[in-house]
Amino acid sequence: MPTDNHVHTRWSWDTAASSSMRLACARAVAIGLPGLAFTEHVDFTEWSQQDSAELAGRSGTVIPQPTRIGARPGVAPLDVEGYLADVARCRDEFPDLRIVSGIEAGEPHLFPASVAAVLGAGEFERVLGSLHGIVCDGTLTGVDDALFARLDAHQVMHRYFADLVLLVNGSSVFNVLAHCDYPRRYWPTARAGAYAETDFEEHYRAVFRALASSGRALEINTSSPLASADLLRWWWQEGGDAVSFGSDAHRPFRVGEHFDLAVDVAEAAGFRPGRERFDFWRR
Ligand SMILES: [Zn+2]
Ligand SMILES: [Zn+2]
Description:
Blueprint: E1 4-7, H1 21-30, E2 35-42, H2 49-57, E3 68-69, H3 80-93, E4 98-106, H4 112-120, E5 126-130, E6 133-136, E7 139-142, H5 145-150, H6 153-170, E8 176-177, H7 189-192, H8 201-213, E9 217-221, H9 229-237, E10 242-246, H10 259-268, E11 281-282
Parallel strand pairs: 1-2, 2-4, 3-7, 4-5, 5-8, 8-9, 9-10
Antiparallel strand pairs: 6-7, 10-11
The structure holds zinc ion (2 copies).
Residues 6, 8, 104, 248 line the site of one zinc ion.
């Protein structure tokens, strides 16, 4: 079993107080994981002056800055000190478990200075890059059922992949690209038919090319509908060589969930464990 590189606990703004790091570690040990990474959400509801200055200073407007950020109820800053103290306690209590510190940075290409300020406040070993929203009419809008009710389903995916390429090219702060087809979680099968990866092959490949050229890892996210072996082959064909397994658990009992299936898919696509048990898997 690989390391679970994407776990949330009560330190994330959207995760229940009962979801403690301790319980997540106990679960990881119980199911035989070699390690886990606590990648708490780092999201923002406004731009700092430095963010805007950095975005404006980028030549050629590589990333058009949205004019507004849509409602993001509940988003709160990460308590870096409390988080890191908890990580240290867990490392003492679970010495045989490799416990990786980290964050899941939401839209890091749009908040470069704000993300850097969080990373500068402590020691973080792993950064996931995530896109949870797309720009609609100038507003950064969360992807959810409401967005799919408003726009054509294929159109949502096209826009998502286009913005994801901007994220990958526009931010070097992260090591792993999380849930590369996140809107798939909300895909309206009743209206649009079953989700077909092949409908978006060129879009996936464009994202993978950008990510592979910068030497980063692709996540197999087991909270999302599971990627196919074909999808992971596209990743490899576009130059990608590392995959990271992430449950995206927001509850301790979901740590490592569906990893047996994810491992089968990765193996079918030709990926194998790295040198150390907690390394990324590689081709
Ligand atoms: Zn996420
Ligand atoms: Zn997550």
